[in-house]
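User: I'll paste a sequence; please echo it back and then give the predicted structure.

Assistant: Echoing your sequence first, then the prediction.
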Amino acid sequence: MKRVLVPVDFSNNASNALDYARMLFASESCIFFLLHVYIGNTPNLLNEEYTNPMSKESKENLNNLLNKIVESNDNIRHSFEKITQTDPLVKAINTIILSKNIDFITMGTKGAKGAKEIFLGSNAVRVINGVHNCPIILVPQNYKIKIPSLIAFSTNFKRAFDKRELKLLISIASSCNAKINITRIMEEEYLTDSQSENKENLKRLFNDLDYIFCKIDVETSETNALRDFVKQTESDLISLVHHKHNFFQKITEEDVVDKISFNSPVPLLILPELK
């Protein structure tokens, strides 16, 4: 059974992220944990006068959301639970990952308007940079969900892969019968001996899957190169391992993460580095 954490702010984007995960694993047993966090715009978060009303409102909204989901659910393999937290989002997520043995997180990349006290700033970026032991699926705003048939997996082959890191990617490809386009984004023309060895190892890990290899030439930036490639090949999902020194780490450290996560035409699967 897959155990999925879904941060919710009662926006359409959060609902869309939940629907996307439900679609990916429609044929598998899953339990979805709906997490709502609230942090007031006050220096004293333990102020009873402030916390109690907000807590009551949040619980009521979450109860209403859960009831709506359960009533409309026609998949007997899927069940749902709710969680309300007053901790900051990343702290709450890390706690629940351990306590609920979460397999992956799915979330939208934009929050509800007027909910600044709940979702401050770029929460997707905060979660990516603050959660290091769990895969994350980011679903773009207004994305029309569809079963992925082609997955772009970005790598430069500069590190060996661990099967545990690729577990969710392999699971999605198998569940959806999708082809993986292993996309090499690098300026060098040839692989080193170490890179070639890592490529062969990846072949072994993807042995039971349908996959191909492709090299992308970088003309302006790695971010633009990958996004253009996804559009040209009509890929349905982008996946990469979030490790030091890869291009995704670079763009999260810069102020251009919106270009890949918030403006990505398709969902983004961030796999944790576990080695």
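The helical segments are 12-24, 48-72, 89-99, 123-130, 167-176, 193-205, 222-233, 247-253. Strands lie at 2-7, 30-37, 78-85, 104-108, 136-139, 150-155, 179-185, 211-216, 237-242, 268-272.
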